[in-house]
Every structure is written in C-alpha cells, then in structure tokens.
Amino acid sequence: MQGGGGLLGTMTCEILRRPGLDEPCMVTAWPIEESGRKRISGTALFAADGELLAHSQQVWIGRPPAPAAA
Does the predicted model carry a pTM greater than 0.85? Predict the structure, then answer.
C-alpha cells in the first residue's frame, strides 16, 4: 500500500500441514489484483524441501492519502 498503508478486509487460508516447532520454512507473497483502493494478494508457506504447507488470499483496503499540511 503506497502512501499510508491499508486495512485488512478479509483473509482466507487453507493449512495443509503444520510445520514442526524447529522446521525451517519459506514464505512468499504476490499481488493478484488491484482496483481503486482495493488490493488482493496471495501468500504461501513452504517447507524447506518445497512442500506447500499453507496458502492464503487477502483483501486489503488502502487508506486515502492524508491531506497536505498547510
């Protein structure tokens, strides 16, 4: 979110397998769609060997820009 961040609208997730306590993991995220102030993104959690552990999708609502200081 450029210029002030955003608010999480919704988030859905599917957990395929929970990682072990000390198991190394990788997280990745990517943009899916943008429309006005609404942005949709995806994330995924992988085990070190590449096994998909979980994936999710989020809807973010961008905050309007702050008014310029006088």
Answer: no
